[in-house]
Structure formats: structure tokens, C-alpha cells
Known about the structure:
Elements (H helix, E strand, L loop, with lengths): L1 H20 L8 H12 L2 H9 L6 H26 L2 H7 L14 H20 L6 H30 L10 H17 L8 H11 L9 H10 L5 H17 L6 H20 L47 E3 L5 E3 H9 L18 E2 L1 H13 L22 H14 L4 H17 L1 H9 L2 H7 L6 H14 L3 H9 L2 H11 L2 H14 L3 H9 L3 H10 L2 H14 L3 H9 L2 H10 L6 H11 L3 H9 L3 H10 L2 H15 L3 H9 L2 H11 L2 H37 L11
Antiparallel strand pairs: 1-2, 1-3
Helix pairs in contact: 1-2, 1-3, 1-4, 4-7, 6-7, 7-8, 9-10, 10-12, 11-12, 15-16, 16-17, 16-19, 19-22, 21-22, 22-25, 24-25, 24-27, 25-28, 26-29, 27-28, 28-31, 30-31, 30-33, 31-34, 33-34
Pfam family, one: PUB10_N
Pathway: Protein modification; protein ubiquitination
EC number: 2.3.2.27
Amino acid sequence: MGDEKGALVQGLIDIVNVISVISDYRCTVKKQYCNLARRLKLLTPMFEEIRDSKEVVPEETLKALGSMKEALESTKDLLRLGSEGSKIYLVRAFPCVGLFGKMEESERKQTVIRNAKSRLWDFKLLIGHPHVKAVEAAKTVLEREQIRSKFHEVTAQLEQALSGITFENLDISDEVKEQVELVLTQFKRAKGRVDAPDVELYEDLLSLYNKTNDASTDPAVLRRLAEKLQLMGIADLTQESLALHEMVGATGGDPGESIEKMSMLLKKIKDFVQTENPNMEPPPRESNLPPICSGQASTEKNHKAPVIPDDFRCPISLELMKDPVIVSTGQTYERSCIEKWLEAGHGTCPKTQQSLSSTALTPNYALRSLIAQWCEANGIEPPKRPSNLRPSKTASACSPAERTKIETLLCKLTSSSPEDQRAAAGEIRLLAKRNADNRVAIAEAGAIPLLVGLLSTPDSRTQEHAVTALLNLSICEDNKGSIISSGAVPGIVHVLKKGSMEARENAAATLFSLSVVDENKITIGASGAIPPLVTLLSEGTQRGKKDAATALFNLCIYQGNKGKAVRAGVVPTLMRLLIEPGGGMVDEALAILAILASHPEGKAAIGSAEAVPVLVQVIASGSPRNRENAAAVLVHLCAGDQQHLVEAKELGVRGALVDLAQTGTDRGKRKAAQLLERITRFDEQQKQAQAQSEAQSQTQHSQPPSTINADDS
């Protein structure tokens, strides 16, 4: 009996200790969950005194302690959901009872009436909303009821178990008894009580939940959501994305409509944070930027250095990454920094504190390419990666059980059941996103050819899962070659043309990832990928346009693809994006135009698109990056074509160029100097031509009149 008591009570202490370290509860549940965790911590002294007591514990008390353990296990899971779960889901999961004001809670009847009214009010509020259908409203209320019911359920279990512990035969101090009785009283008071939530937050989320049109989204609503949900940084957005993916995993890999909508809402918030960040208050650390390892642009005192995006900083050093690598948790670090961390004996991910299942480091070529593009656009020399760090072929550290799971999923991929294929492709998509070892193991098991075969399936969800799984697998360097050699590019192009919008977006992102390898740029360009990328750039969502622009930029680095892009009509689309009010694509459009302008067909198409007035305007009032790209395009247009130079001069470009030459980035200064030199040379040529014309005119006037022969008279 003594051993049984000791093990049971020690188990209770251990669970409470685990609960004690759970923190950072989501804002929608913070008050309730913090109060619950605080009350449970107060029970530890009682458990310790029971453990250390020599007295025999009655059978009834042992049963109550067993019930307490079950209740604590359920509470621990619920508190973890409140700490690690999706913030968006938890906002949807809690009711709007705050609209009723305070009501009497002393009587059970009134509590029942209040809860019934709350459910009715929730349904009326939802059904009256212009973007919510009746069925969706009912589902949302039911979801809230499940979470709310779980909280009240564990509270009732804890109260019942605590009430079953009798102190008469226990050797417990009076102070501890009083403390436990206080906790019991608090549990009784908390039963049935629901704190008033942030109604504005709930209604903001509801207003966007069913919207599919990005253009109709109110930026003020997105800002409030991002701030209140604390989704303003890349780390917070990543954690929220992982939380939603865990929910997808719990569904067997095929998320329902509810989770899909939450994922789309997260995309809207992420797009807002990324596109609007320059107009928002920067994080405190940006006011004191750490030095860049190499290639910091030299600037004048009156020129503000470009702010390094958080995505491009190493989470350890906070400096621009030169050689970004991915660890097993999916986080990216500067190679030298994470290697020092591992050499110091650490076995966890510095950012997430998760245990590393493997010490393998996978180069993040996609991010390195983005960093190089950003450096080029901001006049910063791209950081150079040491040449002696060529990685060896990555080996997976997956356990036999994990490999067995992957093999099972691959069998389902070949199933004749569309449902099995869809679920398996969705699960592989999630596994490939999770960590580097999974990506290697999935490829080693032979998943890539099977996924490529599903790109042409008529089932749009399976197709979307397949292309996104290939996108996630392509993060691994060794997998890029396998994907290309498996003949994936035509299938990806097919999805890019015919798939759902999300599938088309992920197909574009996959092509970008594969095009990091130079020889793949040729293969992708020859496959007919460029015209549908231009179509997505023109017709896609904000995310789709950005994915298409990134892929086109990378593909057009290869000279042979520039003509294909021009012939596909990319220049008119880029010009429209340049002048589109609130379009948020000016940076990408100018970056692509700057590449295309070096090609004869590109130069001709840009000149025919009457781009000079727009370019002059950007040089005069654009961001540092856009000013230099606009100047670079104008340099190419004016090379050997005085018509564009005259037009720019008449539009007053000289003053803007003088300012750019003084305050611009290094590259911007060079381009401005070239244009000013050409304008000066053109003015001198004009003066010389005018002087020669005047001299010839004077010579003609000074010649004596010719004599008239007598015969002529």
C-alpha cells in the first residue's frame, strides 16, 4: 500500500510540476488558464505532505487521488492547447457572452439559462453576419461549445476529486488544509463562469473568416488582428502555422473546411505583416542594428541604411546570414553559429527549445537566393559563402517506426482509392514540412515519383497536396535533382495552369525552389512554365503574384529565359503592377524589369510600354531599392536611344538623379552618375551641333553674291 501511495502521489506532483512550466497562454484564454494553473500549484504542498506521511491512506482517499491524477492529465492537455494551440482557433473557440454584461451566478438555474442564451446569441450573431452561412454558424458554435465544455469538464473533475479527499485520517498541517479548502472554494466558484472576451477581436476575425477576395479586406482589421493575436513577427507567424498544421495532422492529413479557412486567414495576416511592415513601427531591436558580417552598403549621413528583414537574420547572431542552414526542427540559422551551438554540447533548437532529432544541417538554398536578391536590390554586396563548406549527401536519422509510417503512406499513394491517395498525400505534405530528416527519409523511400504521378490527378485536393509535398521536399538540396530527374516539371507546370489557386501558388513556389540550381533554370524555362507564371502574376491573389514574381525573377537570371518572358507578355503586366494603387507589387515589378531591360527584346518592350514617365516618378519619390532599379532600367533604355533620354530630361529627371547620386545606395549612385553623364554629353552634343549650325549659317551669309553674266541678262 505504501509503495502504491508513494508512486501515485509522486505522479501527481510530477504532473503539477509540468503544468507549472506551461506558460505564454493565448490572449483569448490567458486569464482563465492562468487562474487554473495557479490553483493547481497550490495543491503541491498537500501532495508532498501525503507522500511524506507515515499514516495509512484510506481506500476512498486513494480512489480520489486516482481521480485527481486523471483530471490533472486532462487539465495538462487543455493547458498545453491554450499555450501552444492555434491563436486563431482559440479566438473562434471562445464565446461572445461578454455582450450580455454581468449576470447573477449564484444559482445553478441562472447559470443554465445564461449558457443557453449564450449559445443562442452566438448563433444569432453568426447567422446575421453577411459572410457566414447557417450551417457554418452552427458548426462554429459547436466548436466553441466543445472547447468551453472541456474547460468546465476538467474544472468539475478537479473539484469532484478534491472533494473526495478527507483530511481526518491524513497527517496534514492546518495551513495546508486551509489552502486546499480555499482552492476547492475557488473551483466551485469558477464552475460555470465564463470571462467576457474581446468582442472586437472576435468580430474582426469573423468578418474575414469567409472572405475569399483579398481586395475587399480592410487593412485596419488585419492590423488589429495581427496586433491582438500577437502575430507581428516571423517567429509568431511560424508557430501559428505549425499549430494549424498539427491540427491538420490530427485529421489524418485532409483538413476540413474550417481548418482550411483558418489557414487562409493566417495567410492574409502574414501577407499583411510582410507587405505593410515598412509602414509599421519596427521592432525595438531594429533601432540598433547589429553590424553585417560582410557587404554593408556605405551610406552618407543623410541616407538611412536598409532594414534587414527578420527572415534574413540568424536567430542567434541577429546578423544577415551568409550560409543559412536548416536544422531538424525546420528552423534556419547561420551555419557557423549553429555549429558553435552544437559543439558546445547543446541538443536543442535555440529558437524553439525542441530536442534536435539529428545534428544534420541542410543548406537553405531558397533563402540564400532571396538574401542575394535583397542585397542586390539594396546595393549591398551579397555575403559570400566559404567555398570549402560543400555539404556531403544528407542522410536521414528517422527511426524505424517513422520509416514504417512513411512506407505505409507510400502504399496508400498507389491505392486505387482516391480518398486514401488524398489522405496519404496530405500526410506526406505535413511530414515533409516538419523537419529535414523527414524530407530525406520520404525521398529515400521513393515518394517523389509517386507524388509526381499525382500531379495529373483530377482530384484537386490530391493535386494540391502532391505539389505542396514536392515543394517541401525540394527544400533539401539532394531532393532537387531527384524531383527534376523524375520528370516533375511538366506536371508542376500542369498544376500551375489548371490547379486550384493555392495549388498554383505552391506550384510557382516549387519552380522557384528548383530554379535555385542554375541548370534547372534552363529545364524549367524550356518546359513552358513562363507563360502560366505570367498569367498568375497578372490574375493571382497577392500571395500568388508574389510567388510568380519570385519564380520569374529567378528564371530570368538566365539570359535565354528573358525573351520567353517578354514574349509571354510580362512587360505590360509589370507596368500595370507598377501603377496599380495599393497593389504592393512595385518592388517585385521593378526588380524584374531591371533584369529584362538588359535583353534586346526586353528593352524594346519596356520602351514601347511608355515606361519613362513612371520610371522618372519612381526615381524622384520611390524607396531606395525602387529608385535604383528604376534608374537601372532607364540606363538600359537610354543606351543608344536618345529619344528616351530626351523624354526623361523633359520630365525633369535631372534633379531626381542629382539627389539619387548623393543619397542613394551604391548601385543607385552608379546608375544616377551614368545617366547624368549621358545627359551632360547629350547637352554638349546639342550645343556643338547648334554652334556648327550657326557657324554654317554665318558662313553662308558672309559669302559675296555671285556675279551675273551678261548673257543671263
